[in-house]
């Protein structure tokens, strides 16, 4: 479980993002079917990314989670500003608690992913910085 010790924050963030969207799937499928299916893909993607974080392929987990989180942020902003096709009900609805919580977790995962995926400093770069 070495990878869980190293990447537990990412796993928890993905679980939270997935859970919030999972709870809303029935409503979204009833309102706007394509958004419901996007939620299903998001939940499956969060599960896959979390599984990768628990393996030696953890970079793939951060990459997939970054893609999911950034996409969710973009869709959140679009649904609150211009709306999406057949989904104009959330325009201006910035204060929905579950949306805000999901947004905070998605932004946190984006920041965590950027930190985890940045290249490690090379010995030569470290030596030049010291001198």
Q: What is the tally of beta strands?
A: 0
Number of helices: 6
Q: What is the average of the pLDDT values?
A: 89
Q: What structural class do the secondary elements suggest? A: mainly alpha
Report the order of strands and helices. Answer: HHHHHH
The fraction of residues assigned to DSSP E strands is: under 5%
Task: Give the helix proportion (percent range).
Answer: over 70%
Whole-number total of structural domains: 1
Q: Could you describe the largest sheet, including whether it forms a barrel?
A: none
Distance between the termini: 39 Å
User: What is the alpha-carbon Rg in Å?
Assistant: 17 Å
pLDDT below 50 for ≥5 consecutive residues: which ranges? none
Shape: elongated
Transmembrane segments: 7-22, 34-54, 61-79, 99-117
Keywords: Membrane, Transmembrane, Transmembrane helix
Quick tags:
mainly alpha, 131 residues
What's a quick, concise take on this entry?
With 131 residues, the protein is mainly α.
Walk me through what this model shows:
It is built from 6 helices and no strands. The chain is mainly alpha-helical. It has one domain. Keywords: Membrane, Transmembrane, Transmembrane helix.
Present the secondary structure layout.
Elements: H1 2-23, H2 25-31, H3 33-53, H4 58-80, H5 97-117, H6 123-130
